[in-house]
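Sample entry (656 residues):
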Amino acid sequence: MKIVHEFNNQKKEGEGVGLFLLTNDSGDFFSTIPSTTSSTNSSTTSSTNSSTNSSTTSSTTSSTTSSTAPSNIFSKYNGLINYESDYYKDYFKSIESINIQAGNPLKITNYFDRVEIEYEEGVKEIYRICEEGLIYSVQNYKGPIKIFLDMKKLYDESTTGRIYEHKYVKEKLRLVTNYKKYSVEEENNDKRNKPLYECSLAILGVKNVVINDPKNSVNWFERNYPYERRRNDSSNYWVNNAYTINSQGSVHLVFSFAKTELLAVKKSNEVAKNINLILKEKKQAVDNLVQNTSSFEEGTAFFALNQLLVKRKTDKRKKILAGLPWFHQNWTRDELVSLGALIKKGYYQESKDAIMEVFDNYYKQKFKAMNSGEGLNSRDSIGWLAKRTNDLIEVLKKKNELKNYFSPQELGYLREKTRYILKVELENSREGLIFNDVKETWMDTINRKGFSIEVQFGFLALFKLEVYLSKLTAKKTLYSIEFKNFKELVRKKFYDKEKKHLADNIDEEIIVDYSARPNIFLANYLYKDLLSNNEWDKIFEKVIEKLSCDSGLFSSIDKNHSLYRGVHTGSNNDSYHNGDSWYYINNLIAIVLRGINKKKYGKLIKQVKEKSINNLFFEGCIAACNEISSSSKSEPLGCFNQAWSDAMLIELLLSE
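Predicted structure, serialized as tokens:
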């Protein structure tokens, strides 16, 4: 399918699947692919309820009969997904898909504030998202608009106890669906107790509607989502063709989700009332975001990252979500990695707020994987925290703006907290090194228990930060001897000068693992001063040969290693850190190589950049960088939009 990205006088065109993702500042998002005409939807059937004023239908789910599916089905994570912040504080799905039958799509255009899909005979769909809901329009179209619902908590895949109630108020062109989820025991009980949860979807602009009976199994469709099937994830699920709107030319709809009908209706009314202002502000926000960039590529990558920068009602600050659609949490490591781009783009307050929160969260030798305090320990976050704190302070000092963001007291707090972390970690060190358990580094699906290289180099970055903060606050450094000793120990234990090797990990038995992995590039990025440029260069020469694949991507392990999996194995994780290529790592490798020898590695750097840019614009979800790819072939997979993939591409583009 033809894909176009257009902003002012800038344009990029190419071919792709047409998957797109829209987000708002509150953490809600919508994604889909364009509808196509095929035999899969030619026999779609539905029962016909009266569309008279205030008609109501309710039923439990029957899933004994399968109907054929519409053609714009890609992933179970497509559709409208909202973060319900007032009561459940959880993610909910409501719309599964919106399907029209207008022939094959000709072109999909990303205007950044909206996405437009053009079909045969002048038919056009327009999708927008705002804080209060999804705004959908179709023009020059005469035919059915089928709306499929899958109302549930995002990860609730139970097919029982699903109760839909539809209400249509004709004079207000308003259609509301109230949904209640019950336990299996109460599914067919007329005197049900309190549901497990409930939610509502309000739609404005509805006319010429046929409301389908959820009691009739012909209105239930069994999906087999191809993206999940490829990922070896659960891919079969039943959804409801709730209603069909018969378009006579143009239709304009507003979809708003909330816990209650009252709030959903209120939100949809707010959108309808302020639609012109909302569209204007959305366009202005995008203009401010994209136009102040050095290139269209950088602007688009920053747009992608900004789609993951949110402030939900439950958040005290703006936070970077790790990735959409399923890494919709604020992960400590992922955010710290991604802060490099925010710092370079001048988002100093957001970066400071994130850094201060992570420092506050350190307690008794632990950073958790999520800033909320949940998840596994994240031992490599120490190094990323040190690196990003140093990056931010250096930039602010260079711009003579340090005092505008950090008070003397705050700098003193950072110094003392850095010293506290050094003290705790040194007291708990083993063999003089910093220990990490299984699943405590970014490679959290494999056994790297022991002393991982990026953890040690990250700790060197923490020593460096203590020296810098002590100097800034006119205090004497307290750890100069320990710093010197730790550098000598890491060099001795990890660096084989004769073979030009740098170990990836040393296990508890002090067995050194020299397997080629991209973690040595992380080590250089976090603290490059342990080795000379020439020493790094010789190491990288060997590792690049082992990690480079015919696809033009870098593997996460030596492609000749017995554990290597060249094709993504999906949710069983066999390939995740043993073969899959990570876009953020590819970009980071290019950044590191540019710093070592730009001329020597110029061709490789260009190749990485072009791969990531193609992924950003066309290969995966448009205007977003995927999480991973198979390494033996270019096959974008994982999350549609991954923060550190976006961020490292921005850093790469700005390092030129």
